[in-house]
Amino acid sequence: MKIYFGHPSPFREHIAKTKLLRALKENAPSLEIFDPLAEHKNHFEIPRSQWPYQAIVEDDRKAIRECDAVVVWLPKLLDDIPSFYPTGSICEIAYAYEIKKPCYVLTDHPYYLEHPWIRAYATKVFQHSFDLAACLLKASVSEERRGHPRFYQLLREISALHSAKNHDYAGDKEPLSNLKACKELGVEPWLGVLVRMQDKWQRLVNLSSKEGRVRDEKIEDTAKDLAVYALLFIVLREEASK
């Protein structure tokens, strides 16, 4: 199980954070922890005004989509920095909620225990790290998988791909509204997806025959698109049969 570990930037190298991550790994050994602040450590060496804000946010959103769950740590130590407010952490919680990703908040701070956004958007709020670890361990064990690890990593990647493309093409409308638009022309959506699958398959065949000569296209990207369409074909066929 891979988790996105969000926390306030002042604690990116704090001993309390180190102890917490060690405790989580000891109690749930199968956890894979992604630390966004560790990924952005080079940014802390330059003035904040020079940070590539858009790239940072997009990288974090992509990482959240590709993880199995989000954990946000808001320690009582925040009282030591009265001028600091963990806006980024609250945004991570809200984004996890938006894309229906499990989000667990660990906090011993009275204010954040009752914070309306946290209470509304967090899957669960914990005061003690061992309760959080037990929850993550249970989730990890319940989804223990056999097979090649890369296969399950690819499943996360195509899930993130579907989420991003649905946002771009369908926006805040009904999910898959762009694929269902062909119904206005008398074509069943699942059949429209089948045509798209045929196009992707032909592209895959063509790319395979001239790999190395096509610079702007990757076989892996086309294969992922085909996998997404195959699943959407099932979804739309199921909806049509209801």
Largest sheet: 5 strands, parallel
- Helix/strand/pairing category: alpha/beta
Distance between the termini: 34 Å
Order of strands across the main sheet: 2-1-3-4-5
The proportion of strand residues reads 5-15%
Task: Give the ordered list of helices and strands.
Answer: EHEHHEHEHHEHHHHH
> CATH topology of the largest domain, what is it called?
Rossmann fold
Total beta strand runs: 5
Summed up, the helix count is: 11
CATH class of the largest domain reads Alpha Beta
User: What is the number of domains?
Assistant: 2
Unreliably modeled segments = none
- Anisotropy-based shape: elongated
Radius of gyration: 21 Å
Portion of residues within helices: 55-70%
Mean pLDDT: 86
Going by CATH, the architecture of the largest domain would be 3-Layer(aba) Sandwich
